[in-house]
Amino acid sequence: MRSMNGQKERDGEISLKLFVVLSRAMQAIQKRVEANIKGFGLNLTEFAVLELLYHKGEQPIQKIGQKVLLASSSITYVVDKLEKKGYLVRQPCPNDRRVIYAVLTDEGKKMMEKIFPMHREAMMEILGGLTTEEKEWTIEKIKKLGLYAKKGESST
């Protein structure tokens, strides 16, 4: 019985340490990624929207928020800014007037064709502390952790 309590106590300490280590690592990575993206004249959310459109094609504005993990109230603001910069346009859906698509302009495509390879290189450098195999293992474990945490959301 005593060893069970000892194991539970150790697991509690390790769980707290893991949370701190993950949080600090994410802060450090986020800071470097934001600095990289700022060098392109964009903020993180603008880049995320452009990257989504660049890789997935036109998207309903209403759906962009959930795909780039941004509150729907902020999407209109980000889309407005990107439209003013000439990187995207709004296009009404021909079948449903309630749906508006965000579509990359030629200028937006050219810009992403130029900066995305540089961003990819920066990500490889920023995350260069792990080998490719370690990155694959880490992805698998963090996904598992996230899915487990998400399962618990409904019970809280």
Automatic annotation (TrEMBL):
Keyword Protein biosynthesis: no
GO biological process terms held by the UniProt record: response to stress
UniProt keyword terms in alphabetical order: DNA-binding, Transcription, Transcription regulation
InterPro entries hit by this protein: HTH_MarR-typ, MarR/SlyA-like, Tscrpt_reg_MarR-type_CS, WH-like_DNA-bd_sf, WH_DNA-bd_sf
Domain HTH marR-type stretches: 15-147
Pfam families reported in the protein's UniProt record: MarR
Keyword Nucleotidyltransferase: no
GO MF annotation list: DNA binding; DNA-binding transcription factor activity
Protein name as it appears in the record: MarR family transcriptional regulator
Lineage, highest ranks first: Bacteria, Bacillati, Bacillota, Bacilli, Bacillales
